């Protein structure tokens, strides 16, 4: 038995040994097929046993999805699934690994870096470096074209323990992930009241006052500005960029000199909070913005009550009509304009792991490598074509040998994606658009807005990348952040409403230090330097 299994109780060890010896039909990993120099399709069909998570909207049996049916036909490998949804998946995944009833692999594994490293330490999952080098040409091609991902996949000990999901939509500053919280302003109200699009923070304040006083929603229903505090795409932090470094969802930015900074310790952050308090004192903010959840936020938006609000895509809240438009970044009191970049990117480090129970490593690696074929990756991510039972997200253009996005005729893309796509490890590079597939219409639209409105005002050359910290670093970061970030978030909301940021600022900085801010900065800086050297 593997070292991992040795750490279990004697009862579990005994049970696992019986299973491993092949005398039990409920064995959770596959027998050794003794296959080598494998090419697909296999002459005789075999099976592998995977654990996975899928959407409640998807078929209970993943093999009912056309994508998996085609993969089985192409490879001669049938996948025997244990499939779970929601919180049940995490519980069953952890139980399988702790009890020794491990599958061959876990698709859509969802492990944190800390979990990955601990599973590797216990030899419950295996290093993948040699398998990638020897048996995975599709993934190797991806890493040759975009070598930055290999660094992000690699743990501090030099090993790769999981297969990633990669989705590029725009590069660098023009990445679709550069800004989450787009500010959407009611241009219908601007026209109705004879107002110009604001270009400064003072002009924005005047516009919001006009919304308040004229009540264009009627019956006192007008909300000049709404948001969900400390909630990523719905947060009002976009406005902080007019005062300095700005703010983003993880409070972390990197200067053009490569210095890691906490946005919430910047002097400009204090000035931004003071401006937010001015808006609050003028009754220009949605008072529910400090506690409302997504359904409430959406409901009020659909009622047409917002003058200005923040979210990724206005279609989710106020629809795709012409009544709302993207507001330009604003100049602050000293003329400063800055669009703060998020640290988001289309990369998930742990979409699939291979367990130490797996006795068919070459077979498993070559099957997983099929998922990194460009046309296959596109379908894994969004859905497929030619399905007679489900609505299709693509049509296949035979002449161009290319997948083209279809008009979904009102179907929500995310719902169709959850019913028909498979997620998992994949790679979609920017070079695929126009050759392997088209861009989704909603993504192309947002990328256009990003390039036209946001990119010209981005001051930062760098973002904080997906640093793979070591276990000791992760332990310290999680311990510090457990107190540091809630304190930052709490003071942010308090100051916007009580206006005491100026008088409390110095004590606040002292408290940040007491909570481990300086050590947090050092760990983050070391990780950044290591990842970018």
Automatic annotation (TrEMBL):
Family matches, as Pfam families: SBP_bac_1
UniProt keyword Lipoprotein, yes or no: yes
The entry's keywords: Cell membrane, Lipoprotein, Membrane, Palmitate, Signal
Entry superkingdom: Bacteria
SUPFAM superfamilies named in the record: Periplasmic binding protein-like II
Protein name per the record: Extracellular solute-binding protein
Organism: Halalkalibacter kiskunsagensis
Source organism phylogeny: Bacteria, Bacillati, Bacillota, Bacilli, Bacillales
């Amino acid at each position: 038995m593997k070292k991992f299994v040795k750490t279990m109780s004697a009862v579990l060890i005994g049970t696992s040994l019986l299973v491993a010896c092949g005398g039990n039909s409920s064995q959770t990993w596959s027998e050794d097929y003794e296959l080598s120099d494998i090419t697909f399709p296999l002459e005789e069909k075999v099976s592998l046993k995977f654990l996975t998570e899928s959407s409640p909207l998807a078929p209970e049996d993943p093999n009912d999805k056309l994508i998996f049916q085609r993969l089985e036909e192409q490879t001669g490998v049938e996948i025997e699934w244990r499939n779970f949804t929601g919180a049940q998946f995490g519980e069953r995944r952890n139980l399988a690994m702790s009890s020794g009833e491990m599958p061959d692999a876990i698709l859509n594994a969802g492990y944190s870096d800390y979990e990955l490293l601990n599973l590797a330490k216990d030899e419950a999952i295996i290093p993948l470096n040699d398998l990638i080098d020897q048996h995975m040409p599709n993934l190797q091609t991806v890493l040759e074209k975009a070598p930055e991902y290999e660094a992000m996949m690699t743990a501090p000990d030099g090993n790769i323990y999981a297969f990633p999901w990669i989705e590029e939509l725009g590069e660098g500053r023009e990445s679709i992930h550069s800004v989450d919280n787009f500010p959407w302003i009611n241009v219908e109200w601007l026209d109705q009241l004879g107002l110009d699009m604001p270009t400064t923070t003072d002009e924005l304040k005047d516009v919001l006052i006009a919304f308040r006083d004229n009540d264009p929603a009627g019956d006192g229903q007008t909300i000049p500005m709404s948001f969900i505090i400390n909630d990523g795409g719905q947060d009002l932090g976009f406005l902080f960029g007019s005062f300095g470094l700005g703010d983003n969802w993880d409070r972390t930015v990197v200067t053009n000199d490569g210095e890691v900074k906490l946005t919430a310790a910047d002097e400009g952050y204090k000035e931004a909070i003071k401006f937010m308090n001015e808006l609050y004192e003028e009754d220009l903010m949605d008072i529910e913005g400090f506690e409302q959840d997504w359904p409430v936020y959406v409901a009020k938006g659909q009622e047409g009550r917002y003058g200005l609000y923040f979210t990724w895509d206005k279609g989710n809240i106020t629809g795709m009509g012409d009544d709302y438009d993207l507001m330009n970044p604003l100049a602050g009191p000293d003329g400063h304009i800055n669009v703060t970049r998020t640290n988001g990117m289309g990369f998930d480090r742990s979409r699939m792991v291979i367990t130490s129970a797996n006795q068919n490593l070459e077979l498993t690696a070559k099957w997983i490598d099929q998922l990194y074929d460009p046309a296959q990756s596109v379908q894994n991510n969004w859905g497929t074509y030619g399905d007679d039972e489900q609505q299709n997200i693509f049509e296949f253009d035979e002449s161009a040998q290319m997948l083209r996005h279809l008009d979904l005729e009102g179907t929500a893309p995310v719902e169709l994606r959850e019913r028909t796509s498979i997620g998992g490890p994949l790679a979609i590079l920017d070079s695929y658009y126009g050759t392997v597939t088209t861009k989704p219409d909603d993504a192309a639209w947002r990328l256009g807005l990003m390039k036209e409105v946001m990119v010209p005002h981005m001051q930062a050359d760098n973002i904080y990348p997906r640093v793979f910290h070591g276990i000791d670093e992760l332990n310290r970061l999680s311990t510090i952040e457990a107190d540091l970030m809630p304190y930052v978030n709490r003071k942010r909301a308090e100051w916007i409403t009580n206006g005491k940021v100026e008088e409390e600022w110095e004590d606040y900085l002292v408290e940040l230090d007491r909570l481990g801010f300086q050590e947090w900065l050092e760990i983050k800086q070391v990780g950044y330097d290591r990842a970018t050297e």
